[in-house]
Amino acid sequence: MSINIVLIGAGEVGFSLSKFLSKENYDLTVIDIDKVKCNRIKNTIDARVIEGDGCSQRILQKINFKEVDFFLALTKIDEVNLVASTIAKKLGANNIITRLRNTEYIHSDAIVSPEEFGINNVIYPEKSAQIEIENLVRQTSAVEIKGFKNNTIKLIGIKLENSSSLVGRSIKNVCLSNPYIMHKVPVIYRNDSTFIPHIDTVYKKDDVVYFCGLNEQISEIQKMSGKPSFKVHNIMILGLGKISRMIAKSLQSDYNVKIIEINSDKAKKYSPNFDDSLILVGDGLDEEFLESENIHEIDCFVATTENDKTNMLASLMVKYHGVKQVIMHVSTTSYFKSIRRIGIDAVVSKNISAVNDVLKIIHSKEEITITPFEDIHIDALEIKANANSKYFNKNYSIDDIPQSMCLGGIIRGKSAIIPTYNKTTILPDDNLLIFLNQESISKAESLFK
Fold first, then answer.
1. Looking at residue 83, what is its pLDDT?
2. Which of 147, 182, 424, 449 makes an SS bond possible with 151, Cβ 3.0 to 4.6 Å?
3. What Å distances lie between residue 414 and 146, 353, 381, 430, 431, CA to CA?
4. What percent of the chain has pLDDT over 90?
5. Residue 164 lies in a domain
6. What is the largest CA-CA distance in the chain?
7. pLDDT score at 208
8. Could you tell me the residue range of the domain that residue 319 belongs to?
């Protein structure tokens, strides 16, 4: 029986999520008031599309909400999402997931809570992006960091320089040479394409290697790859948008934070909120201005304006001036390949964060969790090894897992395990972390469910 989902808002978040859901066993309906956005869904995705106002009672009454498993309110406007969620609840929707930008609803002194609108789960894309950027600042030298199983296991992406001792060696050789640094390599990004490597794969210069390891060993993995974490003192943030403000507030007590904002009125409005940060009025694309602010002394530059092209150009400029770590925010995934080619250290998207947050909530109602990595076209599948599954019925071993999948980690009771070649055994009820492409998800489910 397929899961019935109704989604309002076909912007970047809604479109990206719809692409993923349409490939799974979901019956999807998308509602948007914009004809262009509706046509984009119709032309690329297998979904029912309704052109109209997502918070209109007349539009929503066309849907039998008693048969709807999830209602997703994902427009950019909080008020639209709140009204639509309220109507959907009164019409009988079971699970309501709502996107909000304003975080005041989760404050302890909030007068109105999301629950009063009939909302079951709230996602805050800007908050998710802020957390992701903060993790990158605190774990420098990484292009991406993702935590699994309450952060007991982490996936960290590292770009290999020519000086790395890994270049020219096989995965098996590196594992045997570092027996006390337990790690798996589920993904390598090379020459604009992604693949799941095998033990004889040889590391190459400019590979972006995704290492899976225990949280406490991530620093050792970075050292092993030739990219040890470095100490950050001075941070410069471009823009005073929502994400920038949250990052600055979170980091200002631990680092020297400068914020550049071109709009003087905006800078004046928010400056009283930042006692420990320095807000500068200026153009982040003005090279003379950057030099006057000693850009060469900045350890980490974070570009989080609302304009992707501004973020990209500013990131390139400061990288040229020798900033050690450059983190850039983008709203669309269209630039991901280009950004990787030009050498920006890390890219974060609030829209991808939002998609991942929604999928986690949907999958939490099922027996599996899927986290897509849209920029590298790989998914992380979290699934429990069922005692009656094909894997145990046929007495398979870890070596029988297809090469299109990589077992990155195992949670057994309270213990986290990074599997090693020929030494790790999967037991019934183990919680598995498997990296694979989307086409292999059904194979993994048939193997372990």
1. 93
2. 147
3. 20, 27, 19, 11, 11
4. 60
5. no
6. 68
7. 92
8. 234-352
Tell me, yes or no, whether 108 and 37 share the same domain. yes
Find, among 267, 266, 233, 271, the residue nearest to 249 by Cα: 271
Beta strand 431-436 with 378-384 is antiparallel
| pLDDT for res 225 | 94
Is 119 inside any structural domain? yes
Q: Structural domain tally of the chain? A: 3
The Cβ of residue 6 has, within 10 Å, a number of other Cβ atoms equal to: 26
Distance CA(359)–CA(354), nearest Å, equals 9
> Does the pLDDT of residue 309 top 80, yes or no?
yes
Q: Could you tell me the pTM of the whole model?
A: 0.84
19/268: higher pLDDT? 268
Q: Is 23 helix (H, G, I), strand (E, B) or coil?
A: helix
Contact 404, 436 (CB under 8 A): yes
Question: What are 233's two structure tokens?
Answer: 């003192």
**Residue 1 confidence (pLDDT):** 53
Q: Does pLDDT of 372 surpass 80? A: no
Q: Is 197 within the bounds of a domain?
A: no
For residue 75, report the phi and psi dihedrals to the nearest 5 degrees.
-75, 170
Clarify whether residues 365 and 299 are in a common domain. no
